Each structure stands twice: as C-alpha cells, then as structure tokens.
Amino acid sequence: MASVRIREAKEGDCGDILRLIRELAEYEKLSDQVKISEEALRADGFGENPLYHCLVAEILPAPGELEEPCVVGYGLYYFIYSTWKGRSIYLEDIYVMPEYRGQGIGSKIIKTVAKVALDQGCSQFRLAVLDWNKTAMDLYKALGAQDLTEAEGWHSFCFKGEAMRELAGR
Description:
The protein is of the alpha+beta class and 170 residues long. The chain has helices at residues 14-27, 38-45, 105-119, 134-142, 148-152, 161-168; strands spanning 3-8, 53-60, 70-82, 86-96, 124-127. It has one domain: Gcn5-related N-acetyltransferase (GNAT) (Aminopeptidase, 3-Layer(aba) Sandwich), CATH 3.40.630. The protein contains 6 helices and 5 strands; from the N terminus they run E-H-H-E-E-E-H-E-H-H-H. It is globular and about 60 Å long. It holds the Pfam family Acetyltransf_1. Belongs to the acetyltransferase family.
C-alpha cells in the first residue's frame, strides 16, 4: 500500500477539494446540487475567521519517484455548540475516491477529526449519513459512533431557499 498522509488543507488545495466535492455529488447522483466555487471555498475556509476546516488525504510518492503527492480524499468539518454538552465538532463531509477505498483512509480522516475535537475541548463529534449508505454506517458504528436516529429518534431538518426567505421576512 502507498503511503498516505492526512493533513490540514491549505488554500492551494481548494481546486482538489472542489474536484472531490464534485465527485462526491456525482457519486450520490446530486451533481446538479453543487453550487460552491473554488473562490468561495478559499474565502470561507482560509480567511481570518474560517467557517470550516478541512483535512485532505494524499498519497505520497515512493522515495525516488518524481510524482507530486495526490489528494484522494477529504474531510470537511466545523465547530458547533450544544446547549447541553458545550463545544462539539461536526464532520460535514468525508469522501475518499473509490479506487482508494478499503485502505483505511476514511478511518484515518475520522480519527484525525476526533483528535482535533479532543485538542479543542469538544465533548462530542457528530456527523450525518444518508440512509442508503450502509457501508458508511457500518464503518461509523465499527469505530464506535452511536446512531442517534436509532438511539434517540433524532431527525434532521433544513430550511432553505424560499422557506428561509419567508421565515426571515424577505
């Protein structure tokens, strides 16, 4: 297996991150939903007050190879606050290119997010998964995650577009 490095994304990684976001959307058959641009990723993640943080997984060339490291996955996260538990971290997206799955890269990204959470004093690490993605659910459970839908009956909701404008009176 090639050597894999998980590291905090740099501003110069925004093109690779966007490429992988588009691959993920295509994988989920939601490619028409991607509205983000490389410029927005750069502005929102690498300014004075970043709205998100991102880890990238890269395959490192073997010693003596002339290739550059290749970004093959990412984990995009941000900090949230629980009124009952305090500081928390939320993993918005995790994606590894299909040809690199099964090598533990996703688990390494998740473990790195857990380390960030503990380093930042977070009491919990949350994420969501689509109901059809049994492979991901099995991985999260194997790593020790609790399914809150099963355990507590939580459902996620979202206000967007016209509903959000109507709520805001605009």
